[in-house]
Amino acid sequence: MRLWTLHPKYLDTQGLLALWREALLAQAVLSDQTKGYKHHPQLARFRQCEMPRSQIAHYLMAVWAEATQRGYRFNQAKIGQMNQSVLMPVGSGQLDYEWRHLRGKLKARSPDWLAGLPTIPQPEPHPLFQEMPGGIAEWEIGAAVHHAEH
After folding, report:
1. What confidence tens digit (pLDDT) does each residue in 119-137 have?
2. Could you read off the pLDDT of 32-66 as tens digits, one per residue?
3. Left if phi > 0, otherwise alpha if psi is -120 to 50, otherwise beta: which for 134?
4. Taking the mean position of all CA atoms in its chain, how far away is CA 25?
5. Residue 2: inside a domain
6. Are 65 and 82 a contacting pair, CB within 8 Å?
């Protein structure tokens, strides 16, 4: 599961579709509608919020908006109930990490999309996140260490 902190506008079609599916799965997990993924590191930042289900719904809404702008027809009815959103902090180091990670994926699967991306020093975060000084998120580091050990 990869819930990008980057703005969804940077994702190619395959990435945007995958993000929609994975964010819907995250919504189901946060709503106790699944047996698996309950302890997935990508969900830690949502669980730290006062209203995690509302936050993931806001996350999905931004993905839906990007898809709609591109002419895709994602089912908005699948998005859960939203209360007022709260911007979630993200370290600039996390955005840098994800930008490098995404560019590596795009180099392999969508070089034409990658070539069309702007050359920028720092990408915009997903609208639910606010960039702050900081490194790679602990949940990202922990997942990488756990993956390397197995």
Report:
1. 888 899 999 999 999 999 9
2. 998 878 888 889 999 999 999 999 999 999 999 99
3. left
4. 12
5. no
6. no
8 Å CB contact between 96 and 123 = no
Q: Is residue 117 part of a domain?
A: yes
> Which structural domain, as residue segments, surrounds residue 59?
8-149
State the pTM of this model. 0.90
Tally of domains within the chain: 1
Q: How many CB atoms lie within 10 A of CB 127?
A: 17
For 80-118, the DSSP string reads: -------PEEEEHHHHHHHHHHHHHHHHHH-HHHHHHS-
Task: Look at the chain and count its residues.
Answer: 150
Note whether residue 1 is domain-resident. no
CA dist., res. 70 & res. 64, Å (int): 10
